[in-house]
Amino acid sequence: MSAKKFPVEAGHILMFARSIGDENPVYTDEEKAKATEAGGIIAPPTFVQASAQFDPDYFLRPKVGQPWFGSGKNPTGVVRAPGGGGGGGGLHAEQHYEYHRPLRAGDVLTAETKPGKTWEKEGKRSGKLIFSESVTEYRNQDGELVVTARGVGVRTERPVEQPAKKEA
Amino acid sequence: MALSASKLKVGDEHTARLVEDLKRTQIVQYAGASGDYNPLHTDEIFTTQVAGYPSVFAHGMLTMGMTGKMLTDWVGDARLTKYGVRFTSQVWPGDTLEAKATVKALTERDGVKLVEVDVATTNQDGVVVLSGYAEARVDP
């Protein structure tokens, strides 16, 4: 994910913290956050993933006037879902973060992504697996490195087989 | 709030229940907050009829985010230096997840005390859905 400008806003941190079920006031309450070691509102450890909102080309967001592969009148809005089996252009296999300094409400980040290695593996539950890695550096308004993120995506030949479901 | 190296030892564990009976609405909340609107997570019709899965399933990053809460509740705010995971199995609506951190090593870098932990999140059937590691600054 690349973004020229990723403003880290308190309201966005609040929504993100709620979505992961985290009610820690250091993410939502300015007064309480000031009294903590962090010294103010910070973002949760996985928040930089939300830079997707600020990537103009992010392909997992519907865009006005462009086909979208999710359902509407029909089960999919495109003739053939992108990617291989499983639809949706693949699955997330790994995610790694290194934290260099706290990410604070009010920071304005840039995100620069570089492709990494790609490799293949034969999977038991989904056929041939194609892995690809990308490394994103998040820097703040002073050019300081805040977070380094390394993600690994996987495209599967077919949907991942599920173990037999237990009867509830 | 923060942990002390002097009070930790290899093998110490911290556990937390992350979610009970995960709701589709929480997955929708995560899609909206994170910006990942992949229909595999929110669109039952697409996911069952086109993608061929039994139902929508959670973003791996939702599980990583919830597991991160277990870590930050334990090590303290803004204390993590590393956190990485592999997504080993899908998480479905209705799942109940438990996360565990196990102290692997106590180390020091540039005069800063650190704790290294193994991280695992498991569903109600005992299947590991996320497996990884974290490192955090601790007090002496």
Topology:
The complex is a heterodimer of chains A (168) and B (140).
Chain A: E1 3-7, H1 10-19, H2 30-34, E2 91-99, E3 108-123, E4 127-139, E5 145-156
Antiparallel strand pairs in A: 1-3, 2-5, 3-4, 4-5
Chain B: E1 13-19, H1 24-34, H2 44-50, H3 60-75, E2 80-87, E3 97-109, E4 112-122, E5 128-137
Antiparallel strand pairs in B: 1-3, 2-5, 3-4, 4-5
What keyword list fits this structure?
heterodimer, A: 168 residues, mainly beta, Thiol Ester Dehydrase, Chain A, 5-stranded antiparallel β-sheet, 2 helices, 9% helix, globular, B: 140 residues, alpha+beta, 3 helices, 5 strands, elongated
Question: Overview of this structure, please?
Answer:
The complex is a heterodimer of chains A (168) and B (140). By secondary structure, chain A is mostly beta strands. Chain A has a single domain (5-156), classed as Thiol Ester Dehydrase, Chain A, CATH 3.10.129. Chain A is 9% helix and 33% strand. Chain A is globular. Chain B has 140 residues and is α+β, with helices and mostly antiparallel strands. The two termini of chain B are 13 Å apart. The interface between A and B is large, with 55 and 52 residues. Strand 2 (91-99) of chain A pairs antiparallel with strand 2 of chain B, so a sheet runs across the interface.
Low-confidence stretches of chain A: 83-88
Topology, number of strands of chain A = 5
In the CATH scheme, what's the topology name of chain A?
A: Thiol Ester Dehydrase, Chain A
CATH homologous superfamily of chain A, by name?
Hotdog Thioesterase
Could you name the CATH class of one domain in chain B?
Alpha Beta
Structural class of chain A: mainly beta
Brief description of this entry?
The complex is a heterodimer of chains A (168) and B (140). Chain A is mainly beta and 168 residues long.
